[in-house]
Specification:
mainly alpha, Growth Hormone, Chain: A
């Protein structure tokens, strides 16, 4: 390892670990919402309505994300990436811990779901600023010819966060009875978050600020409002980033959150089957995301992203047909193909692709706006829309597959209007 390589590897590792911790916090909420939140916080509702209500609290976090993206994007472009990353990590960690000690409806009545929504909002607000800063630290430190790979390493924290979240629930599910899990077991993953927070803060405080931002700060100590500049100079690129997110975001939350409710309520499958499948698929995706990121450095961002969107559209119906077999092996294969091929092909090049759409002076704001403005409609509403479509079709999953095809068409349209960015010189963009 040469001296010049050491900083980028340290920064990428810090981005990866910090992202892993924040998304672990985020994913345990989604898993708990699908498994138990309807019984704990909405016990007076019937099973279907309670599930919709639980997914509704899950969606709250997505609607908070654009607000967090606006706030942290603004200050990230004015004050620096590092400070914002420390703040978002603390916000996520504390909110997650408080969910773990939150009284249920049986203890404090209607105040319980209200507090749950407030804490979920804080989670979403923090994640809204997290993604942009984490990937920019990796991309802006990275070598021009390897930005896709370095950015995707930060992205790889997402499948590991999902792997940890699913792994903890899997362990608890195997060791506890349903009554124990419902009484106190579901709290354990949230309480662990405070320990991960300490680890993440230690790592993030040790990294250096982005060199591109430091150079810009030396040249322009005072800059106008970044959000206004993004919206006036880069409106097309913000829309491209938003559209590119639809298939990636919607498919991910249907495959990893909605699938629990579908398997349990319509197939009466043991939740452990889905937990195991997601566990294995997340491990494979951890390898696949950097591979697709590295491939985008050679083949370009657009071809790799287009492949992922087309694959997701074509595999949407086969995915549900495989799950309907109720075979653990086939369900696992379906999950691997959906998450580690279709989704990973879009998620791998995404960090570099979005970063290359904006100049350093507004990059935090630009990537956060494009990424987070799509989140409520693409990811946040996806489990609710899927649940409603499934009820409308009396348990037939084809409308959910059709919905995934529509989101893929939105993404393909957005990529159609995007220029290839792989050869963009990020430093030259600031001159």
């Amino acid at each position: 390892m040469t001296e010049s390589q050491t900083p980028i590897r340290r920064v990428v590792l810090a981005s990866f670990i910090g992202t892993t911790i924040e998304w672990y916090d985020y994913f345990i909420y989604g898993t708990a919402a699908a498994l138990v939140f309807n019984k704990l916080f909405f016990p007076e509702l019937d099973a279907f309505t309670g599930t919709i209500a639980a997914f509704g609290t899950f969606a709250v976090g997505f609607f908070a994300r654009p607000i967090g993206g606006l706030v942290f994007g603004h200050f990230g472009d004015k004050l620096g990436r590092k400070n914002m990353l420390v703040t978002t990590l603390m916000m996520m960690g504390i909110a997650t811990f408080l969910i773990g000690v939150l009284p249920t409806h049986a203890q404090i009545g209607v105040a319980s779901p209200v507090l749950l929504v407030v804490l979920r909002f804080i989670q979403g607000f923090g994640v809204g600023g997290e993604w942009g800063g984490a990937v920019l630290m990796a991309v802006e430190h990275g070598h021009r010819g390897r930005r896709g790979f370095f950015g995707s390493c930060a992205q790889a924290g997402v499948p590991i966060g999902l792997l940890l979240a699913t792994g903890v629930f899997t362990l608890l599910n195997s060791q506890l009875t349903d009554a124990q899990f419902l009484a106190w077991g579901w709290r354990v993953p949230f309480l662990i978050g405070i320990l991960l927070l300490a680890v993440g803060l230690y790592i993030r405080l040790a990294i250096l600020e982005s060199p591109l931002f430091k150079k810009l700060q030396e040249k322009e100590s005072e800059r106008p409002a970044p959000i206004r500049e993004v919206l006036t100079k880069y409106p097309r690129n913000v829309l491209i980033a938003m559209g590119a997110r639809f298939a990636e975001n919607a498919s991910f939350y249907i495959f990893t959150v909605f699938i629990y409710a579908y398997a349990k309520n319509h197939l009466e499958l043991d939740r452990q089957v889905i937990l195991n499948a997601i566990l294995i698929a997340s491990a494979v995706q951890f390898i696949a995301v950097p591979c697709f990121g590295a491939l985008s450095d050679r083949a370009g961002r657009r071809p790799v992203y287009i492949f992922g969107a087309v694959f997701t559209a074509l595999f949407a119906l086969p995915f549900f047909l495989l799950v309907k077999t109720e075979s653990p092996v086939l369900i696992t294969i379906a999950m691997i193909l959906a998450i580690a091929v279709g989704h990973a092909a879009m998620y791998g090049p995404q960090a570099a692709f979005f970063s290359e759409l904006f100049s350093t002076r507004v990059r935090y704001s630009g990537v956060s706006l494009g990424y987070q403005l799509a989140s409520p409609f693409a990811g946040g509403l996806a489990p609710i829309i899927a649940a409603l479509l499934l009820k409308w079709s009396d348990g037939n999953p084809w409308p959910v597959a059709a919905y995934l095809v529509v989101t893929s068409l939105i993404t393909l349209t957005a990529i159609r209007f995007a220029k290839e960015t792989v050869n963009t010189d990020l430093a030259a963009e600031d001159n």
